[in-house]
Amino acid sequence: MSISKDKITGWKQKVHEIIYEADTPAGKLFDVLLLIMIILSIIFVMLESVKGFEEKTYDYLYVAEWIITIFFTLEYFARIVSINRPSKYIFSFYGIIDLLSTLPLYLSFFMTGTAALLTVRALRLLRVFRVLKVTRYVGESNKLAKAIKDSKAKILVFLFAVLIVCIMMGTLMYIVEGEESGFKNIPVSVYWCIVTLTTVGFGDIAPVTPFGQFLAAVIMILGYGIIAVPTGIVSAEYAAATNKNIVHVNTQSCWNCNAKKHQDMAKHCYNCGESLRNG
Amino acid sequence: MSISKDKITGWKQKVHEIIYEADTPAGKLFDVLLLIMIILSIIFVMLESVKGFEEKTYDYLYVAEWIITIFFTLEYFARIVSINRPSKYIFSFYGIIDLLSTLPLYLSFFMTGTAALLTVRALRLLRVFRVLKVTRYVGESNKLAKAIKDSKAKILVFLFAVLIVCIMMGTLMYIVEGEESGFKNIPVSVYWCIVTLTTVGFGDIAPVTPFGQFLAAVIMILGYGIIAVPTGIVSAEYAAATNKNIVHVNTQSCWNCNAKKHQDMAKHCYNCGESLRNG
Amino acid sequence: MSISKDKITGWKQKVHEIIYEADTPAGKLFDVLLLIMIILSIIFVMLESVKGFEEKTYDYLYVAEWIITIFFTLEYFARIVSINRPSKYIFSFYGIIDLLSTLPLYLSFFMTGTAALLTVRALRLLRVFRVLKVTRYVGESNKLAKAIKDSKAKILVFLFAVLIVCIMMGTLMYIVEGEESGFKNIPVSVYWCIVTLTTVGFGDIAPVTPFGQFLAAVIMILGYGIIAVPTGIVSAEYAAATNKNIVHVNTQSCWNCNAKKHQDMAKHCYNCGESLRNG
Amino acid sequence: MSISKDKITGWKQKVHEIIYEADTPAGKLFDVLLLIMIILSIIFVMLESVKGFEEKTYDYLYVAEWIITIFFTLEYFARIVSINRPSKYIFSFYGIIDLLSTLPLYLSFFMTGTAALLTVRALRLLRVFRVLKVTRYVGESNKLAKAIKDSKAKILVFLFAVLIVCIMMGTLMYIVEGEESGFKNIPVSVYWCIVTLTTVGFGDIAPVTPFGQFLAAVIMILGYGIIAVPTGIVSAEYAAATNKNIVHVNTQSCWNCNAKKHQDMAKHCYNCGESLRNG
Known about the structure:
Chain A is mainly α. The first copy, chain A, has helices at about 1-20, 25-50, 55-80, 85-90, 95-100, 105, 130, 135-175, 185-195, 210-225, 230-245. Chains in contact: A-B, A-C, A-D, B-C, B-D, C-D.
């Protein structure tokens, strides 16, 4: 009996190794295949929304979509089965994404239009970093994430200020421009103000009165100037994060004169000349 | 008599605590309610400008607007009454905003169109930082404000240079493009030049002659290049502000003269010359 | 005779003081009046190009323009007369600008359309920094100018690379999109490519074929990514310039142990404890 | 015989000197002429695509194009002949570009439309740095290239994240906006999303429903905020590269072990412990 249980465990371990890890050839092959299928499936969902192909093409896409979805469903259950504590996977970030990647097609039986939601699968592409096994990439990603996290509070304060400016300038533009030139109500004016301040500038709405154009110029120059703020924050934050790693890597202190901040390749204290290694 | 006066003072203190502070549960509740009402009122003012709702909706919005305004008016007087020196509140930044947040609706009896000015209430949202009681946020906000203030002179010089460029390039475009392609006079050309230099690019006016397009390309590349200037300024300024905090990590203080902020490698007090190590 | 010569010299000195300097009350008043006239004249030139005013307004503007131009002409000659070596003024940056600020109106007798060139007067506004007597501003301006000058070589290399990319991507778009969708020849395609890469995006020309839109997306992401390059250069350059000024301000070295880089407020050597002042 | 061989070698060396190098007057002249011809030929190719000239002009352009191409072909063969190991040139970066710069015109006999590909010649302009003989420029270019190379991994991670965001937001916009307002299928919506996130904003497609405009505002603010990320990365990376050069300004080398790059405050060699001052 214990052998049988061991067998099952062995089978589960094998599946776990293939699905969850990417160190063995089989595990790597599985992950690469998975990524190809994810990319294919995103392309298929996109193409399905394009009008103008032959009727047959949609049939092929529909079948391909179902094959991939069934594969993803099987993979999802395999992941649940092969892990010791399934709840840990199910409620993890990837677990939820994997579920959301299969549900929409099943839901499309009951509700039309949900199939397009399958592009949530794009999030599964984040697995690519795991497959590449390039810790460097993940490391960079983590460092980036850290820099962004450190800047979060500041950037929120900044965005909050931008929003207040947009609400007030939007209202002003609504009053100044009137409704003929596209500023038909305050929400639309605020929307236009965000479009302008962020230097996107669609041009579907544009001021026509001289004073409106003057105000628009002020908003633009404001937007041009304040884009420096988030950039400056992230620059400084990122530089600080990088400096921390670069500068104080050597924590040695001389046993003779206690001088610190030795260069990495130092053998002797730069202050008193004592040997650092035999210290 | 003195007891009665004490009572009033006590009552005033209680109101002051609720309205001005956010440390007690009552004070916090008041501030949160206030913020909700500010947000609601901004949404109401915005919706009121949207055409196409039923007649009834506008009636509801009108009533809601009045209820909130009366509440704000009462709050304004409560703030004046509960403070010892009312003038200090009335002429403060928040005092003026609070007044401007109630006036427009009263003015709308005499002048039409002023109701939209109620969105000045958006400025009241700045109180959110006080409610959050997250000194961290305020601290960040102050640091940001400091960095921007330090960069102000430089950014003014920069914007001044940008304006001179825009006036001259705008005139050139007016001469080159002529009036058929939207560059109908110099102010409009200057406006277009600002739109282009800031990389907004509405497209309501666009050059059509080859030489005009060449000039436009020059302006765009200029704008693309000089956006680096304010960004660089704020980055450096912000990094400097951050570094200042980093550099003086040495928390030693001289046991003799109590001087602080010693350099990391200091052996002697820079102020009195006492040895720091054997102190 | 020598007295008469002294008189003339004295008269010349007086005029020189008023026109060229801004330290005496008369000199400051003159400069402020000059700035006001420059600003007024720019506004007048701009307004003159606007259609739709009454006939009379143009007459007034015409007269005002002539009065200011005559004043500027007189000022120009006064500057030449009151300086010892007139050639030094005439061929200086401001001398040439001052000449160009008066010529166009005189030329408008012979050639139409030259009057608009009067906006070159905007360059005269650079005098504002002298009037403000805020060395701080000029200092900032110089520091900025230095940072930009230091970055010049790098930014030229960068812009050169951008231009090569634009020429090749523009040609590609011309081949891909064909002539129906606005990409009517290669120069226009290159122009569009610059518009897109700099994130201006007028929208007067936009790709319509799927492959053209794909290429456009590549160009945009490229432009979004490489805007980081000039910004990064100026940031680093500016930070380096700022650091140099901040850190090594104190050039003292201890007479006892020769330690350098003392803090500004240091009285004693941080290394050996010797007094720095009495050294 | 050996003399004859020497002659040939001498002749080859002479050609090599002229074509490959730019130190001798002849070599410099050749390179400058080459650059002028490259620029002219790019201008000719561009002009050829412009409609509306006289018939004769196209004939002239055609002839000029052929003359330049034949010259480039001769130059290409001269380069192959005058080098000892031709394969080293043929498969080098410049060798391939030089070939691609002549082929399209010959191919235009067989395929129409290939002549426009001649603008690949723009890449030949990179030779300008060699002609300028300004090592400074090349140095800057290398430094830039290094900074970009160091940032590559991070920027790839960033662009990957941007792409995933664009795919998902594009799908959402497709669902929200429907097909009337230009979001006719998912690929186009994703394209629009890239246009918006990178703050280009053509305006050929723009949201019209309130919720679509709200989503667009979110995308824009996102794009406005995250442009800080690549900028911050390059800034920090570039600053780090610059700092590396700055930090090791100390040009001392130990008289005992010849170790270089001592810290500014070092008294003893970090490598062998010898005193640096009394060395």
